[in-house]
Structures are given as C-alpha cells and as structure tokens.
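RECORD TYPE: inverse folding
INPUT: structure tokens
STRUCTURE:
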C-alpha cells in the first residue's frame, strides 16, 4: 500500500465505517454494563511523571517546560497506578475507558496508541474478576449478536460461561513438554538454542526464555475450542500482582485468550508497600541490565500503598482487541481509523 492510498483509506471504506459503528456500540454497552453494577467512571491523566516500570514496556517521553526548566514526562502506558490511588482514596469500585501508549509496539496485534478499559473491585480477588469478564463478554455478545456465539477466523466461538481455566505450569507442560518447576537458570540458554534461537548465554534470562516459548508454542493454542483464562503466572512476571498464599512462587494473575488472541490481563492487586518497592527496584535493575530507559519509581504511588490500599482486584482489557474479535479480523488496523501504519510518510513495520 503506497502512502497516498494509506492516507485516503477512510474514503469509500465500508469495513472501516462499520467497525467504527461497532466500536461506538461496544463502548455504549460497556458503560451500561458497569453503570448498572454501580461502578464509578473515573478519569486519570494521559501525561504523568512516572511510566510503568515493567522491562517489557517502553514509554513515550515528552518535555514540559516551566519558567525555562525542562521536566521529562511520559505518556501513560496504563492508568493503573493512578486508579489504585483512587482505591486508597475510598472511591470504591471504579472503571475507565481511556487511551494508553507504548513505544516500539507496531504489529498486526499492536498499535502504539490504543484504547484500554480498566476496572477495579475492592474486597475481591482475581476469581471475582474472571466472573466479571465472563459477564461482560456475555452481555456484549447478546447486545451485538443477539445470542452467545460469534464467528472468528473461520470458526464459531461460544462466549457463554463458564470459560476454561488453565495454569501457566500446565500450559507449558501440555504444549511445550516443559516442567517450569524443575528448570534451573542455567538451562534456559540450552533450551532456546535447541529451538534455533540465536542468543548469547548472558541474554538467556527467565523472561526471554518464558516469552519465546510462550509466544511460539503456547499462545497460538490457547482458547481455540472455547475462551480460556490462563492463570497463576510466575512471581517474576507479576509486577503488580499479589502472591498466591498456597503457591508463593506464583502470583494471582490471569489473561483471557480466544483463538490465540489475548484480550485482557488481570491481577489480585499487590497492596504491600515493602514488597512493591522491592519489585520496582528489581525491575529498575533489569531495565539497566538490558539497556532500557532508566525510569523513575513512582514514589507517590508507593506513598498511597503505605497509607493503605484495600484488598482489590483489577483488569486491563484491550478495546481494540475486543473489536478485532467482534469484527472477525486478525489485523488491528481494521478497527482503528487512524493507525500508526497509515500515517503520512510513516514506514510500515508489520
């Protein structure tokens, strides 16, 4: 597609127009769902002083000038920190539909600017959020399709609950014949090299190993028969999630998959100040070791945790991914009117 045709993709494009109407309907139904359940819709800043600390996330930086002084700020990669401050402030069950931004993420499944739905329940855990997700999906498919099934990538998918539940440990065992519990740090390199990945031994840490196996061997198999909650992630991949009381090597985290498409990421929220600080410091070291940006720790967020955040669980749900599902497409560009890949003189990298 040349630049001229990309710039004029909005003209005489029934598919884009229909998907814009579908987006409006999904947003309207989503707000009705949460309002009917007593959730408060909130609003948090798009520009903040601290981005997410997760090593996998690269933020967009910007400068704010005040009386000649320059202050580095960031476009939010998630409204999570600020929404949790509202939990501490006593705002109760809350939700938000907003824009978020992640740099260097441009594929058929990723746009650097995307729409996200986040909600939080106080006095609950990730099992309760799973119920919410099932109820929301049931509500949406009934409102859009007047039933419980959709067609996605040439296959009928039943969105009626209950959804399957699969632990990370079982997923690695079933789809990759790997026992995560028995692995040692010295084995990651040999396994990755055996699978053909060109990598230096010092770069073969747990995160690189986990995501290479996960993306290539596990994710494509998830939710092909019916939606599945992939749950109980290793603690090393649970920055803001609470540890399982009976399995402290895991955190109470889940993701929803339908036909290999990840739709949401959820936690029982970590509300322990000291443990959260320790995880932030670990992630800061990981970012330094990988040559990533040296982001500041959100001391304000930590201060709120020290004040006392109630037990809660929350989820980040990708609205654009949800649209892909209901629009029956595997390309995020089909559901965004102004994607990065269609910008003037912007070279595609998908």
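DESIGNED SEQUENCE:
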């Amino acid at each position: 597609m040349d630049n001229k045709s990309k710039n004029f993709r909005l003209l005489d494009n029934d598919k884009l127009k229909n998907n814009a109407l579908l987006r409006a309907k999904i947003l309207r139904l989503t707000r009705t769902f949460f309002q009917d359940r007593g959730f408060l819709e909130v609003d948090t800043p798009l520009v903040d002083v601290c981005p997410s600390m997760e090593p996998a996330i690269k933020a967009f930086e910007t400068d704010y000038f005040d009386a000649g002084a320059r202050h580095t700020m960031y476009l939010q990669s998630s409204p999570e920190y600020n929404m949790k401050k509202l939990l501490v402030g006593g705002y109760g069950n809350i939700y938000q539909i907003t824009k978020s931004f992640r740099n260097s993420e441009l594929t058929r499944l990723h746009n650097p600017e995307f729409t996200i739905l986040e909600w939080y329940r106080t006095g609950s855990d990730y099992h309760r959020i799973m119920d919410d997700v099932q109820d929301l999906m049931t509500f949406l498919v009934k409102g859009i399709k007047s039933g419980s099934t959709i067609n996605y990538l040439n296959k009928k998918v039943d969105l009626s609950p209950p959804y399957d539940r699969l632990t990370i440990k079982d997923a690695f065992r079933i789809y990759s014949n790997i026992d995560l519990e028995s692995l040692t740090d010295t084995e990651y390199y040999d396994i990755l090299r055996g699978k053909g990945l060109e990598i230096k031994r010092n770069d073969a840490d747990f995160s690189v190993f986990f995501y290479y196996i996960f993306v290539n061997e596990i994710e494509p198999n998830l939710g092909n028969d019916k939606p599945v909650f992939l749950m109980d992630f290793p603690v090393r991949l649970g920055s803001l999630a609470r540890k399982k009381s009976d399995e402290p090597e895991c955190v109470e985290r889940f993701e929803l998959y339908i036909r290999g498409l990840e739709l949401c990421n959820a936690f029982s929220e970590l509300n322990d100040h000291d443990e959260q600080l320790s995880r932030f410091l670990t992630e800061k070291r990981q970012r330094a070791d990988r040559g990533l940006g040296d982001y500041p720790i959100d001391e304000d967020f930590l201060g709120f945790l020290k004040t006392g955040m109630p037990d809660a669980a929350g989820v980040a749900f990708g609205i654009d991914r949800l649209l892909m599902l209901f629009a029956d497409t595997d390309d995020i560009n089909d559901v965004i009117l102004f994607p990065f890949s269609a910008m003037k003189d912007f070279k595609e990298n998908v």
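NOTES: The domain at 3-163+309-342 is CATH 3.30.930.10 (BirA Bifunctional Protein; domain 2).
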